[in-house]
Amino acid sequence: MHSPLPFAALLFNAFVWGLAWWPFQHMHQAGLHPLWATACMYAVVLLALLAWRPGILQQVRAHPQLWLLALASGLNNVAFNWAVTIGDVVRVILLFYLMPAWAVLLAWRILGEKPTPMALLRLLLAFGGVVLVLLPADASLSGLFAGLSLADGLAVFGGFMFALTNVLLRRFQSIPAQARMLAMFAGCMSMGLLTALAASSLGVVPAFPALDSSWVTVALGLAVLLMLGNWALQFGAA
Question: Based on CB atoms within 10 Å of each CB, which residue in 27, 132, 133, 231 is the most buried?
């Protein structure tokens, strides 16, 4: 009989991300764009992890394939954090949690896990649900993509990257968990920072604001929760 702990860990991670929209919106209203918030929070988490386990850096260097995990995790965070700030929260989370459908396809391709007939049925139900969410009222299927917003695109892309992150965690389960965590935190920080710098230079997002306790406190609290959620994801997905 399988232990329920990995499933409980994954549910906790989903719970953290399911409620993360509120602090991100709060920080955004206080002047901190979610891209800057992502970079700041994961910088704090990354420094804390390196201070606690300085030897992890050597483990990461010994496994260069972890850059794939860093990239997938970073893009997942950037897309989701941005989407829940600018879009309808329920719609964004529904589209983001198309992740299990992407995971079926990615696990088939990367892990060689051929889906069962029931898994394929769930795949069809998932994509059918997306059509119901995206299709405007009284519109034909040809107009499915006509009303897509930036938040919708970010949510779908973020869900795909979240699925890839989960599959890569399974693929790299022989690598020490601490090394995987460091790679993910580094990817989240670097992708958040690079995207924020690029978007700021193009005038898409505002520049980094002055320090303000109204968002600094929230950012620190959420950083702790994200670190716990990442540990839960490491345990459950692997």
Answer: 27
Q: For the chain, state the CA radius of gyration.
A: 18
Go through the chain and tell me how many residues it has. Answer: 238
User: DSSP 3-state helix, strand, coil percentages of the chain (rounded to 5)?
Assistant: 75, 0, 25
* N-terminal to C-terminal alpha carbon distance within the chain: 17
Nearest Cα neighbor of 41 from 56, 53, 27, 29 is 27
pLDDT above 70: residue 229: yes
Q: Is the pLDDT at 4 greater than 80, yes or no?
A: yes
Question: Which residues, 6 or more positions from 18, have their beta carbon under 8 angstroms from its beta carbon?
Answer: 93
The span from the CA of 42 to the CA of 169, in Å, is: 19
Outline where 20-149 has alpha helix (H).
Answer: 21-29, 34-52, 56-61, 66-86, 89-96, 99-106, 117-134
Phi-psi region of 56 (alpha: psi -120 to 50; beta: other; left: phi over 0): alpha
Instruction: Indicate the angle between helix axes 150-171 and 89-96, nearest 10 degrees.
Output: 40
Sign for the CA dihedral angle at 40, 230, 34, 25 comes to: negative
Q: Which one-letter amino acid corresponds to residue 15?
A: F
Is residue 85's pLDDT more than 90? no
Q: SS3 for 149?
A: coil
What are the tokens at 37?
């918030």
- Mean pLDDT for the stretch of residues 122-130: 82
